[in-house]
Write a structure and sequence with these properties.
2 domains, 71% helix, TPR-like_helical_dom_sf, Tetratricopeptide (TPR) repeat protein, TPR_rpt
Length: 488
């Protein structure tokens, strides 16, 4: 192998490693050799366009000069036309860049690099549909080229096809986990979609490759702020103004006049309160750990929410509360009051409140699950026991249990209230039945008729007592369900 070819191969290896200055120095013999000059000028332009001012303060003009020199040596070289398109793009000459990219693909239709550059140029010129077809062709031409997936993801984002964009980013990162452009793009996409915490590990992966990237510091600043906002929201737990506080649920349940249910509810109140405190402590630790990472990245410590500012409450629809029951006369059943004990009219508010708490806590749990799955590498330093991933897993597990507790609690109270309402309908129907029988008995013209209507009244009494039994059986089921709902 002649010296020029040897130098070109060496410079190519160095460029693949991102060692741009060494690659540029190694190119000197290749630039002087006639048989390698074209490729050497192209590679020098490639190094300048990637390293930019790190390699030379005049990087742009030198890159443009190297491309022009390559084109003089070979006007039909696809690589040189591709590089010229890049310089035009960098200069904002989009139409000129598109023309050069089209020429590069014409000269080498199977070259994946030319195809995904053409897609970028088409996208820059708002030819989105054409860019999508070209980006797909680039992936087909070289399915192992991560940059082709970056272009495909950018085209998908331009079409607002978020799922396709995420899939393309992740496909590319599977090929090259250290590809800065793919990692940054995926992190920005997740952040834009509101999956802020999930983007943390993605950004960290990009930070390992390029710790000086300004976009990374900005992202870590935003994520750090988002974590603190979540912690503040969890502490203050904003709710619909119509919803009774969780701590007041014992009073909501109280009118049912059931000591077993009241005791079970109070046990649940204590357990869920303890669980919320646990989550708050874990969130505080997670914020501190992430903050340490963010500070190491040079992130800004944005001020969190002012505690004096009221958070917008969750807009949860509250059901209407029925008025007091009618004052029925129960003496026709030989009873002073309704045999079906308890007023469950306020249970609707209690169930709605628990439904709100369950939904909101489940949303938190889903968000924590996303970041716990994507934060396995997020640590302050090697060997540190404050592992962000472990903390997020614990928070996800605790919030999941809490969400299930709220849901089971709501289901138990709703089932009991429904059973009580049915039982009350039965007892009220029995009262009407007994009142009719009493009137018929008192107006009977014979003793036999009086006995028959008294039998009817006694059957109505048995029906009312059976309704009371249904209520008591529902209470036993409710107490059992409430105890089973205690977070373990």
């Amino acid at each position: 192998m002649n010296p020029g070819r040897t130098a070109l191969v060496t410079a190519g290896h160095l460029a693949d490693l991102g060692r741009w200055r060494e690659a540029a120095e190694a190119l000197r013999p290749a630039l002087a050799a006639e048989d390698t000059a074209y490729e050497a000028y192209c590679l020098r332009a490639h190094c300048l366009l990637h390293a930019r001012s790190v390699l030379s303060p005049l990087w742009w003009s030198e890159a443009r000069g190297a491309v022009r020199a390559a084109l003089r040596l070979d006007p039909h070289g696809a690589w040189a036309h591709r590089l010229l398109a890049l310089t035009h793009l960098d200069d904002g000459r989009k139409a000129a860049a598109l023309r050069e990219a089209v020429e590069a693909v014409r000269l080498d239709p199977e070259d994946a690099r030319s195809l995904h550059l053409l897609a970028r140029c088409q996208l820059a010129c708002f030819k989105v549909d054409e860019a999508l077809r070209t980006a797909g062709s680039a992936v087909e031409a070289d399915p192992e080229d991560p940059s082709a997936y970056l272009t495909l993801a950018e085209v998908a984002r331009a079409r607002n096809e978020w799922a396709d964009a995420e899939r393309a980013y992740r496909d590319g990162l599977r090929l090259d986990p250290d590809h800065e452009g793919l990692a940054l793009g995926l992190g920005q996409l997740l952040f834009m979609l509101g999956r802020t915490l999930e983007s943390a590990e993605v950004y960290l992966g990009a930070a390992r490759v390029s710790p000086e990237n300004d976009a990374l510091r900005k992202a870590f600043s935003e994520i750090w702020l988002h974590l603190r906002i979540i912690r503040d929201r969890w502490r203050r737990n904003p709710r619909s103004t119509a919803a009774p506080a969780i701590a007041d649920l014992a009073e909501v349940v109280g009118p049912a006049r059931s000591e077993p249910i009241d005791a079970a509810v109070r046990a649940l109140l204590a357990a869920t309160s303890e669980s919320r405190v646990t989550v708050e402590k874990l969130l505080g630790q997670a914020v501190d750990v992430f903050g340490s990472v963010a500070e190491l990245m040079g992130a800004d410590s944005y001020a969190a929410l002012d505690p004096r500012i009221e958070l917008m409450p969750f807009d949860y629809p509250m059901p209407p509360v029925p008025g007091p029951p009618a004052d029925d006369k129960w003496d026709v059943l030989d009873m002073a009051d309704d045999p079906v004990r308890g007023d469950v009219s306020l249970f609707r508010l209690g169930v709605a409140t628990l439904g709100y708490e369950g939904e909101l806590t489940a949303e938190y749990a889903a968000e924590f699950d996303a970041v716990s799955q994507g934060s396995t590498g997020l640590r302050v330093r090697d060997g540190d026991d404050a592992d962000f991933h472990r903390l997020m897993m614990e928070i996800h597990e605790e919030t999941t249990r809490l969400a299930l507790t709220y849901r089971a609690w709501a289901d138990a109270l709703e089932a009991f209230a429904a059973a009580v309402r049915l039982a009350k309908e039965q007892s009220s129907g029995a009262r009407s039945w007994a009142a009719h029988a009493t009137r018929q008995r008192d107006g009977a013209t014979t003793a036999e008729q009086a006995r028959e209507w008294e039998d009817e009244r006694q059957e109505a009494i048995r029906s009312a007592r059976a309704a009371a039994g249904l209520r008591d059986a529902a209470e036993a089921r409710c107490v059992e369900a409430l105890r089973a709902a205690l977070p373990g």
